[in-house]
Amino acid sequence: MQRLMKNLGVYLILVVLVVSVVNMFLTPQTAGPEVAEVPYSQFKTDLAAGRIKNFTINEMKAQGRYADGKTFVSNIVGVKDVAEEAAARGVEVRIAEPPETPWWMTLASSVFPTLLLIGVWIFFLHNMQGGGGKVMSFAKSKAKMFLDNRPKVTFNDVAGCDEAKEELKEVVEFLKSPDRFTKLGAKVPKGVLLLGSPGTGKTLLARACAGEADVPFFSTSGSDFVEMFVGVGASRVRDLFDQARKYQPCLVFIDEIDAVGRQRGTGLGGGHDEREQTLNQLLVEMDGFDEKTGIILIAATNRADVLDPALLRPGRFDRHVVVDTPDVKGREAILKVHAKDKKFAPDVDFEVLAKRTPGFVGADLANVINEAALLAARGGKTEIGMAELEEGIDRSIAGPERKSRLIGPREKKIIAYHETGHAMVAKLIPGCDPVHKISIIPRGSAALGYTLQLPAEDRFLASKNELTNNICVLLGGRVTEELVFGDITTGASNDLERATQVARSMVTQYGMSSLGPVVLGRQRHEVFLGRDLGEDRNYSDQIAFAIDEEVRKIVEECYVRVKKLLSDNRDKVDLVAETLLEREVMDGHDLAVLLGEEEPVSEKSEEKAASESAGAPAPEEPAPAEEKAADGFIPRAPVVSNEMAPMERKEPPSAKGE
Ligand code: ADP
Ligand code: MG
Ligand code: ZN
Known about the structure:
The chain has 22 helices and 17 strands. It is of the alpha/beta class.
């Protein structure tokens, strides 16, 4: 059928082409080659002189015979004038009948445009579907159906989100033996919503569910429902559930559901749009599940805040499973999962690596292992060592090392001092997060150097003191430039931006200034665009002025403090900077040795592992996220890159079942 339709399109176009070509050739051709063409002027004079015997007017041509028997043809202007003049002179003149077009030609020329349109339309329809579906299969759902070839992923491949796993295991249990639950009258969730930041393993979890449960699995994504034709999304939803009903019990997975599930009535173009119809259809379908329906819907999103409340209410996605950013133990487990089929050197300690990677999600960790494996392979090694893994982590934070970037000796010196400034402030102010690494090897597209501080343990709260310390550390780079070179560079722009941001948050969000414990301003966001648009100012101009003054005061006080601190310790700054210039990279231990705080140890990795496990006890509670303090020394234009995560946490980890 579909083949036929496709061919029909081609045939139609062909027929139309042939007809038009034939049409061209069939246009009546009058004068034969032996007939002499005479100019009109000649024709007129000949006619007036009576030299013409007879002729026939065929449209705008006169063809005939001279009295001497020769034939002629001439183009003429007015048929009537010529005919009347000839008749008046007694010349025999005939008017030819207008040429008759064959009936089929007339028909063809009137049907021609229509046929062409239909042909093109069929062709177009066909190509749009990539030759796959039927001609009218727009309305069919694009969900991939796995009946026997279900994903091979199991729950063992997912680590670091044990609570989420437990909840989903229950779902799987239900799918395996629904009777056990229904006999007891237990209501089984209709919809499970997986919430979590990108890369935490939501998609992976859903696939694991399908792999574990012995049922058909439909996998689709929110964006599959979005098409340029109105109504298509809704009918795709209908089709998806029609199919699912045929195969129940089964699992339906909708990834990135926010593409269709956004709050209704917030479209920029006004109310009733395509997305709304799709969402409505989804709601209707979910209401259609009764207690006995064996369809379980799993959806994933990282933007639960933009979802329509109707989707979240009981009876729809009533079970919310938060897939957290993994904590230290979780990270270790994830690293081990990804390390399963790779060879590692005996000194590789995943516990240490987990401590080095606060804030990393599953996808980042998978990437770290992969980068390390690539590096080891490139280096011709047979196993992955600690050095490659460390480099993998650095790459994840700040992009690959760019040794080729040419930096002049003077700039390099400035960068070394700048980074030393950050590190020394962190060293000299008690209570700052310990310095883990300083580097002046340029990385990624933006950072020329960086100082990495890692908190000794996962943390949720920041005290006023810690925030001020953060500002001081951020200012350290700029202050050192000023102290040492008597001039300042653009390299500190990102530091300053972040310092100001921390100070502003202290004043407006955390109530940590003389303006008192109040929150000033409100974050405003546009749900349809899905991003924050800025701040609603709910305070007066005077307060705005006072805020600016407070922010300035906080930053300036820190500046003065840092300046005094660094000038008092100028000798240490010089020592560290010179050493950094030489070695390019120093870790926390190197720095401590240099400053005479620690004994140098020859077996570096052993010492590191020992100090790490002794110094920082792993927290009992699983903690979702940590601060990641990577400092970037930015060339000329200020670029905000991802590595520079803000120091403050804006919102508490979302509780489940909110
Ligand atoms: P999300 O859907 O939450 O954005 P994905 O499930 O697509 O994240 O994760 C991407 C990849 O990261 C996975 O294929 C897997 O290799 C890795 N990954 C993420 N989270 C985990 C985890 N908890 N355990 C193991 N691997 C993970
Ligand atoms: Mg995903
Ligand atoms: Zn800096």
